[in-house]
């Protein structure tokens, strides 16, 4: 289990364009965390929301030059989180990051990732100290 805290920043709206709105948090490179995770996000008021989270440079769009981002797609959630501090608890490593040949292939995989998160959404919801 890994915990990342940070402020939600405006990104390039690519997640929204792909149909997977994300809360973006800039973070330093951490090869141990690169990949797609099942997780939960603790909102400022303490509510917990299950999420599919990508950590990495978004290779399909930026290859090696992109900044490292944590992108959390909160399931069944549509509230505005810009500027809020979130605690993201990565609980279930699902797969490594891949560079896809086209956007349609990436979207298909994102649907698989979210379905896998839903299947495993029994994540422990206790917040680590």
The averaged pLDDT comes out at: 84
Reading the helices and strands in chain order gives: EHEEEHEEH
Write down the domain tally: 1
Helix coverage percent of residues?
A: 10-25%
Identify the CATH homologous superfamily.
Answer: Riboflavin kinase-like
What is the second-level CATH architecture? Beta Barrel
Key traits:
129 residues; alpha+beta; Elongation Factor Tu (Ef-tu), domain 3; six-stranded antiparallel sheet
Question: What does this molecule look like?
Answer:
The structure is a single chain. This protein is of the alpha+beta class. It has one domain: Elongation Factor Tu (Ef-tu), domain 3 (Beta Barrel). Helix content is 20%, strand content 34%. The protein contains 3 helices and 6 strands; from the N terminus they run βαβββαββα. Strands 1-6-3-4-5-2 form a 6-stranded antiparallel beta sheet, with helices on one face.
Entry summary:
By secondary structure, the protein is an alpha+beta fold. The chain has helices at residues 14-18, 59-62, 103-119, and strands at residues 2-7, 23-26, 35-42, 48-56, 69-74, 85-95. It has one domain (2-119): Riboflavin kinase-like (Elongation Factor Tu (Ef-tu), domain 3).
């Amino acid at each position: 289990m890994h915990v990342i805290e940070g402020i939600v920043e405006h990104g390039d709206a690519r997640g929204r364009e792909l149909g997977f709105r994300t809360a973006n948090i800039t973070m330093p490179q951490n090869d141990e965390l690169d990949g797609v995770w099942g997780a939960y996000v603790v909102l400022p008021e303490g509510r917990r929301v299950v999420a599919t989270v990508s950590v990495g440079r978004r290779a399909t769009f930026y290859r090696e030059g992109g900044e490292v981002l944590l992108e959390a797609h909160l399931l069944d959630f549509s509230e505005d989180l810009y500027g809020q501090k979130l605690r993201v608890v990565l609980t279930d490593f699902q797969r490594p990051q891949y560079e896809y040949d086209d956007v349609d292939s990436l979207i298909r995989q994102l649907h698989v990732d979210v379905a896998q998160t839903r299947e495993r959404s029994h994540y422990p919801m206790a917040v680590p100290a």
